[in-house]
Amino acid sequence: MEEEYSSTTETTHHISKEPLEKSEEIVTVTVDSYKLEDGRMKKHAVYKIFGQDSSGTFECNRRYKEFKMLRSYFAMMWPGCYIPKLPKKKVVGNLDTDLIHKRKKLLDYFVGRVVSYGFLYKSEPFQLFIRGPADYIKGTINLKSPSFVELQEKYKETFPEVSDFETNQKIDDDIASFYTTLEDCLRRVKGFKKVCKKSVLSFYRYEDSLTRLSEGVCQITHYFFPIKEKNNVDFIKKVTNAYKILLDWARREILEIESLMDAIEKKLYLEQILGKYQARLGEHQKGLENFQSGKKSLMQRLSKKTDEQKLKHLEGHVADSEKELLALQVVIRIATGRLIHYQIPRFKEKETEKLESTIRSYSGLVVEEFNDFITHFTNLQETITPTVI
Questions:
Q1: 114-160: pLDDT as tens digits
Q2: How many CA atoms lie less than 13 Å away from 374 in the CB half-sphere?
Q3: Domains parsed from the chain with CATH numbers
């Protein structure tokens, strides 16, 4: 059985201030609840989102596939930037109550991370997501993938603190080294998650055994001691499973690590595209040089356009390729600057804070549980103590 999240999971979030932003807007967003609805072929889960910002309150219902579409828009419009990950889709058993509850909590964490990055929260895809039409997929059909020239202007405007950032080989090596560290960390956290799940289930078995043990002791005392007063101590069933806190942290941490790894991978992907753009520019330049020297291709010879028109067409190809190439270089530089100066340092700082908070919560519950056990058996001892004649 998939256990549900502990009560320590955050459900409200506040937008954090990006570097050099002039203002900070307070926003509260939560995936409030879920329900099952009938679809064309089968039932599906719908998650209710509720929130408030400076424009007022908002409320909407979204399916998991709409969350997936939202993230695809983020990835399309902000390549190389941190985009929070979603819990993985599960084909079999996706209507299981425990699975839906777990997914709701992770979707709540997702929107909270979106809010913590102003450029994502204020983006058109997310504003349509929380305030748009009932069918998000149909409502966003006009959203198009931006060109690198458009991305260049958007990145400069959104991230002015790194608009003039210059990269070098050492920076690339540092990012590659950090990616390797993330891979190792992800492997360890996944292993820790497995241990936590076993501990959660072991706790429930221990809880049941202890309950039966204490009830058995109470029954046996009937044959040996007069019962002063029937004392049904039921606290064990009310104890919070402290291991859930660690399991919650592990699940969220896996998504957080994968999100940053994804940002680095997208940056590397952009660099691969840059190589293709450079090759394409070289081909266009060579074609222009051949035409200017009188070496025309078969298609150029068969074309009815004048030589002046053909030359202008080739020059336009070269100019467009150069423009896209330069724009892509700017996007890569800014994405790299964000990684080095903001995303990686913030990741280290915030994850340390979250781990410390998790450990405090876990330790507090363990101490509380220990004290409750003492109280429980102290009361039980008082119940079976023989009456002094």
A1: 999 999 999 999 999 999 999 999 999 999 999 999 999 999 999 99
A2: 6
A3: 1-133 (3.30.1520.10), 194-384 (1.20.1270)
